[in-house]
Specification:
The protein is built from 4 helices and 2 strands; from the N terminus they run E-E-H-H-H-H. By secondary structure, the chain is α+β, with helices and mostly antiparallel strands. Keywords: Endonuclease, Hydrolase, Nuclease.
């Protein structure tokens, strides 16, 4: 007969995810769920490995506005992203929206 044994005082394997905090782009609170994405500051295709959680709408706006090469060369910090004129207007618009808010972003005509 096979018996499963359990170690005494064994650590729990299931760990609850930490509360994500605030979006590094817009500063609004993050709520776990479909409204949160992970963003590579330097795109993976350009060699980036570091990723952070942010609102899906903010993430999509970044990729609708900038090419991957632009992100890797000029906009690989949160500060540089926040200072771009298109992103300044976007952040001003989105700051009063609820954390779960999402609307599809149109691709920038400058990126086409």
């Amino acid at each position: 007969m096979v018996v499963k044994r359990r170690l005494r005082n064994a650590p729990a394997w299931h760990v609850e995810p930490e509360a994500p905090g605030t979006c590094p782009l817009c500063g609004r609170e993050l709520v776990l769920g479909e409204s949160v994405d992970e963003h590579h500051l330097v795109p993976k295709s350009q060699g980036g490995t570091v990723k952070e959680q942010m609102h899906r709408i903010c993430h999509r706006k970044i990729h609708a506005t900038f090419t991957e090469k632009e992100l890797a060369r000029s906009y690989h910090t949160w500060q540089s992203l926040r200072e771009h004129p298109v992103m300044v207007d976007f952040i001003e618009w989105v700051k009063d929206k609820p954390p779960e808010f999402y609307r599809r972003n149109a691709r920038s005509s400058a990126k086409r």
